[in-house]
Amino acid sequence: MKLYRFILPLLSSLLLAYAIGVWMDFRYRERWSSLFFNMSDELISSHTKYDMILLGNSRVHFGINPYYLDSASGLSAYNFANGGADVNDILLTSKLYLEHHPKPKIVLISVDPGMLKKMESLQTLYHYLFYLKDTTMRRFMKDAGHPVTLIRLFPFLKYALMNEYNRTSIFVKPPNYPVFDHNIYRGYLNISKDTGIQNQDLFNTNRYIDDSIWEPSIGQFDELINLWQKNAVQVIFTYPPENPNSPFKSWKYYIKGMGIFDSLAKSNHIPAFHFENDKDFVSGYFVDEIHLNNPGATLYSIKLGDSIRRFMGSD
Fold first, then answer.
1. Which of 314, 279, 270, 271 shows the shortest CA–CA distance to 299?
2. End-to-end CA distance of the chain
3. Number of domains making up the chain
4. 5 lies in a domain?
5. Helices 87-100 and 216-230: angle between axes, nearest 10 degrees
6. Is residue 200 part of a domain?
């Protein structure tokens, strides 16, 4: 009888926690579907064949639209970039893609010195904790310090690991993103509709002044390149456009990082498309120092697609 009195409250508490966890998962997915989950579902749960996949950080996620890239290149593409992605996150995405999809013809990697910082992005990509059934995802997230075994046993525990912003986002109404000019398409999302809008306070450049290259990231980039090349996939680097008013080009960290990408491209025989000094990208095409608005991303996607079409035609 005493045992029964102990077990019944325990089971009731676990069932209640499970029910709350299911509700929280629903709300979290609903809140972040357009930004994260639609892309991750495509990466892990789909087996669609794409001619080209796009990898990188926010400058790809918000900056290269597969709709216009496909039109200009004649290929089919998907944007699998994550905001703030480092090379470890890009390596994870690459492994997952090759495990779940037929290999593409091209992997387009947008280079940015931010990818060469110490590996930290997987620590805060909390939506990845919804995909721990996948062995590769589980291994990477465990290496990032997440208690994956406990989370698989008690899924609601992942909310205890989240920062306050993510944890409380389940109580916030999902964003009603405006839809125009194919601005939400195959992983791409950009809600900055007009040219000439400047949000110089949106992106705090000062927080990057003291950044430095994390040397192991260079070896990881080599691993990333080798992964694709050994699968006979054409690797292409693209150097994205920058606001003419951007201070980054004069920073030692930026110069060193770009030099590393130049060396990687040369040593691995990787074609590279350079748009960082393209004068067509005037300040009106940016929302800050490095991120394009939707008209700027459309122009970039068309020009990039045309470059890829001409390159593939010359093969």
1. 279
2. 79
3. 1
4. no
5. 20
6. yes
Domain holding 143: CATH number?
Answer: 3.40.50.1110
The mean pLDDT values, 10 residues at a time, for the chain of 315 residues are 66 77 92 95 96 97 98 98 94 98 98 87 95 97 96 91 94 91 96 70 56 90 98 98 87 91 97 97 92 97 98 77
* Residue the block writes with tokens 């698989």: 152
Distances (CA, A) of 308 to 74, 107, 225: 9, 11, 18
Q: Is residue 1 part of a domain?
A: no
**Do 167 and 186 touch, CB atoms closer than 8 A?**
no
- Taking 3-state DSSP, the helix, strand and coil percentages for the chain, each rounded to the nearest 5, stand at 55, 10, 35
Give all strands of the β-sheet with 52-55 in edge-to-edge order: 77-79, 52-55, 106-110, 234-239, 272-274
**Distance in angstroms (rounded) separating the CA atoms of residues 264 and 299:** 27
Which among 315, 206, 215 has a CA at the least distance from the CA of 260?
215
What is the rounded CA–CA span in Å between residue 309 and residue 31? Answer: 37
